[in-house]
Design a protein that fits this description.
237 residues, 9 helices
């Protein structure tokens, strides 16, 4: 039953994010006179939301491959490559980046939507796509915690991957600004240089906290009790 649920969930979620990436890249075309950002250097790849949607599509494809060619055992002695890749991916990027994108987006929307998604974009960026890329990313990554187990990597490795990813994107944002003179997110325009540095530091810290949150949730759902139960047959033999 659990295995069938995992396969169905992973298949539907992979198709969902793959479609979101395809639709956004192909059909979400914003005229330059509406906003300079969308027509600036970098295309769709300017936005962390787009990066994350790609990450989620790739991750759930890996989950699907693991369902068929790997294992969803709670504590496998020798996990196959697909399982190792899945575990590393979800711990270091899948969960923290999805939660970071979703939480920061809706927090800024609550403060002032013009800072992240101006009303002028509504005719070009449909509401359902907005929820796929900013709401469902959080729902599906949390549901994945419940549907299938994972073994968290060493913190130094998991955090190293996450921090490296976020720093690469931070550098990419400044490359875009250097090339086009436009900040990817309008909130950057209203911050002074010192506040911008503080803003980046707070966001990086928040993203790191989300890594530990993911690890804690995983331990709650798939903690020592379940690991012990999975080892009982081996102990009896």
């Amino acid at each position: 039953m659990r295995e069938g649920l995992a396969i169905g969930f992973h298949a539907v979620t992979f198709l969902q994010f793959a479609f979101a990436v395809f639709y956004d890249y192909t059909y979400t075309i914003v005229p330059y006179n509406v906003t300079r950002v969308h027509g600036a250097f970098g295309g769709k790849f300017k936005f962390l939301t787009f990066w994350d949607a790609i990450l989620q599509a790739v991750f759930f494809l890996i989950c699907l491959l693991n369902d068929f060619y790997g294992t969803n055992a709670v504590n496998p002695k020798k996990p196959p490559f697909a399982r190792k890749l899945k575990d590393y991916f979800h711990a270091s990027l899948g969960f923290p980046v999805a939660m970071f994108v979703g939480v920061t987006f809706w927090a800024l929307m609550f403060v002032d939507r013009e800072l992240v998604l101006p009303k002028a974009l509504d005719p070009y960026f449909p509401w359902w796509l907005n929820h796929l890329m900013h709401t469902m990313i959080m729902v599906t990554t949390v549901f994945e915690m419940i549907v299938a187990p994972r073994q968290y990597p060493k913190r130094s490795r998991g955090l190293g991957i996450l921090v490296s990813f976020m720093l690469v994107y931070l550098i990419w944002m400044h490359v875009i600004y250097y090339k086009s003179g436009v900040w990817v997110y309008p909130v950057m325009d209203v911050l002074t240089q010192p506040l911008r540095i503080l803003f980046f530091a707070v966001l990086l810290t928040f993203c790191t906290i989300l890594y530990f949150l993911g690890e804690t949730l995983n331990n709650i759902v798939w903690g020592k009790k379940y690991v012990a139960e999975s080892l009982e047959p081996d102990l009896k033999t």
